[in-house]
Amino acid sequence: MNTQITQNPNTYQSDARFPQVPDDEIDLRELFSVIWQDKWLIIAITAVFAIGSVALALYLPNIYKSEALLAPAAEEQGGGLSALASQFGGLASLAGVNLGGKGGTDKTQLAIEVLKSRQFTGEFIQKHNILPSLMAAKKWDRDADKLIYDEDAYSEATNTWIREVKAPLKPEPSMQEAYKAFSKILAINTDKATGMVTLTVEHLSPTVAQQWLSWLIKDINKVMKERDVAEANRSSEFLNRQIALTNVADIKAILYKLVEEQAKTIMFAEVRDEYVFKTIDPALAPEEKAKPKRALICVLGTFLGGMLGVMLVLVRHFVRKEDNLLSNT
Questions:
Q1: How many Å apart are CA 236 and CA 241, to the nearest integer?
Q2: Distance between CA atoms of residues 92 and 84, nearest Å
Q3: Per-residue pLDDT reduced to its tens digit, 116-132
Q4: Can you tell me the distance from the alpha carbon of 266 to that of 282, in angstroms, rounded to the nearest whole number?
Q5: What is the pLDDT of residue 245?
Q6: How many angstroms separate the CA atoms of 121 and 188, rounded?
Q7: C-alpha span between 148 and 199 (Å, rounded)
Q8: In the Cβ-directed half-sphere of 78, how many Cα atoms lie within 13 Å?
Q9: How does it sit in the membrane (predicted)?
Q10: Cα-based distances in Å from 305 to 11, 62, 257, 313
């Protein structure tokens, strides 16, 4: 049997009417050729960025970081109140007295939040008169161990602020400005595994960074101690008034126990200076700068310049190529 295969002549016509268009492909040889042709432009852009990064690295002042390792002070006041809560909880609730029990506020975390608060920071800046060193310091004289202030912002001779700012800002920085600046140089890190707290302060001067960090540790312990003592005194006054008003012996026993616990709190606070944080590793004046990383700045700046140069050359080449194709059509 002879089988005759016929072909549809329209097939070739269809192929002729709709020619296959090859997919766009990137020719690596073309890219390398373009880069090589404009190599001097790339080198020039890279050199500009390299010089700029070197100038920036040299312009940035040295920043020193002082660090201290702190341990939360042992809680020694919760045991008595917890025992009272378990023993007289029912009677205390009848008397309208809350003995607490479980789930009290973490004193360490509370101290950290107070340390980061605007009120504490403002009082700290005013108490130690560090506003010029915080807002107007320009550089540090290593030989004299002295800060040099920006003459356009602050006059050290007359102790006056002369900076030019727009409203609502004033020549003398407000505590809100100072708080923002101080928050940038203060870092607080807590190790969740050990509970240890690391405080760091950065400044142009290593001695200033050490001094400020030492003051911070001392002041936060003092502030938290004064808060607890004031609260214990108020509680004692309230409890003594309640004792005078009740005739129920069991409730009086609870109230006397509570007064005793408040007295223990006051005694505990008065005899210990490191009330919330115990210093494990004190603040030191660092000998080496923490930043800037000048070598890294130079390397990244040069690399960025090279990448931008190559991108500029390639984009310019393909734009010209596209324009030529459009003009030919």
A1: 9
A2: 9
A3: 999 999 999 999 999 99
A4: 27
A5: 84
A6: 14
A7: 26
A8: 11
A9: Multi-pass membrane protein
A10: 55, 25, 74, 12
